[in-house]
Amino acid sequence: MKAAFETIGDEAQPLVILDDFAAGVDVLRKHAMTATFEPALNHYPGVRAGLPSGYLTDQLPLIAAAARQAFGRAGPVRVIDASFSIVSTPVDALSIAQRLPHVDAFTPDRIALIHYLFPEGGDGTAFFRHRATGFETIDEGRRELFFRHLETELRYAGPPPAAYVAGDTPLFECTRSVAGRYNRALLYRSGNLHSGAIAADAILSPDPAEGRLTITGFFSIG
After folding, report:
1. Which CATH number fits domain 2-221: 1.10.10, 2.40.160, 2.60.120, 1.10.8?
2. Measuring CA to CA, which residue among 123, 140, 89 is closest to residue 199?
3. Three-class SS of residue 86?
4. What is the pLDDT of residues 80-103, one digit of tens each?
5. pTM given for the model
6. Contact of 79 with 206, CB cutoff 8 Å
């Protein structure tokens, strides 16, 4: 595994890029081909399925070590959620929230993982700055102000177009985009404004053999 410790935007939030993340990645991908995918919850625009039991056993020590170095989180790792995930919702079916950058949690202990499992590479992950507030991360102290601004902007400007966020928009500036690469994983704080960088011509298939197959994980690290 090759680890790069980098930062995102003006706030210089940590970003860990882990190439060759899983030793048995081809077997892991084959497992996804036989998994049962179901519509995702919590605004994820696609489908999800359970992971093989050994995945977290093997990868959690690597996640813990990287989190200790990048985020200064040296406590126990608690798994909030982890699953195979495929972005598959057609653009005309996206909710308003799915057309905007988002955060997954508001506290500094929460760390997100995305592990790319589509062999040809392609759509990765993008990070954003909210133009009106200048915020690149949303914590409990910024939460009310950010959502109040965003609600006002959407009320007066109308909803964003039916599309995935792939770059700059009138409300958000893209500060960093990381390409998806087979067996690459990213770790970042869940409070970073981010989105899948889904191209306009992306294949939005729920079939793990064709679609944007990833593993997404959310952790609390003391």
Report:
1. 2.60.120
2. 123
3. strand
4. 999 999 999 999 999 999 999 999
5. 0.96
6. no
